[in-house]
Input
Amino acid sequence: MLKITEFLKTNFVNRAILLLLFSMVVYFLCMDVAFYFHNQSRTYTFISSKEEHTYSPFKDITMKLAMSDHPNHYFYLLTAEKFDEATNFSGVFFFVTPNMISVLHTFVSILCGKLFSSDSLNMRRLGVLLFVLRTWLDALDGVVFRARVKKRHVFFSQRGSSGYFVDAVADVISGVAMSIGLIIYLSRSWAKRHTELLPKSKSPENGSTTYTPNGSHQVVSKRRIILKVAVFGIMILLAAGLWDRFHDLYHHLLESPKASVEQQGRELVVLKSSMMWIIIWFWRILNAPELIEMMLAAILVDRVWEFLSWIIYAGPVAVCLLSVITEIHYHTVSSFIGKIPTVT
Output
């Protein structure tokens, strides 16, 4: 709380950033409430065809959309869909493929990594803005792909496709670029901070000022910085892998076009249940993109080290605990619906 108070006292930009972040959280929570109540009125479990209409975050709900992170669902995807509807980008620029867009946002993410390594807070904040552009382009390549295959607004993972592989590689490169940039920045920052804290002494011979070690000041080694960033990266990979696993399991369990009428009725009961949506909501918070968005927020408020020091302990515990609860829930509802659980 004290650090937040100090941050608020600095300048107008910092206050504006905190106001923006607070407004985003309120917006996401309000949209979640609307999304939940809209889901309670659904009468379908599987989207087999698509009628043409403007995009809405509350229509055509699939497990992939329901489990998506808040920024992607309520901002990136929403604005990318509206952009394509307004400009017909996927039709006018027919020669621009989704993979080309993926390659483009990969280069943007590398530039972001360079900016994240800067000693200037303003440059790091510029890196955040470019990373937002990078994530928006990531959403746009999905919009273009769905438009080209005539499945606009139908949100399912295209496992096994070249686009699925290219997207995964692009995401990994993006994460690596961010990690390297943060390691460079934190290493410089702690080295500079340690130098400033060292007590000064006058040389008796020539009167020059030198620095001498002092055990009372905290020293953070580069090895420790690399370790923390690496743990954060591993946590991101863990969250991504588990999210993908459970999303795929629930997709096959609750969105099967071959289910009997009785099974579809039970699937709908599960999809509308409070426990199902509690699990979905926590996966929205603990999936990889949302954790990366949290890191971007930490960069904006210049609290990267503090965020890392907290999330590398709380994050893995939360992800593993949620995975256990999700696994138990999945097998429970599988028995209720009358399907054999699929293990992947």
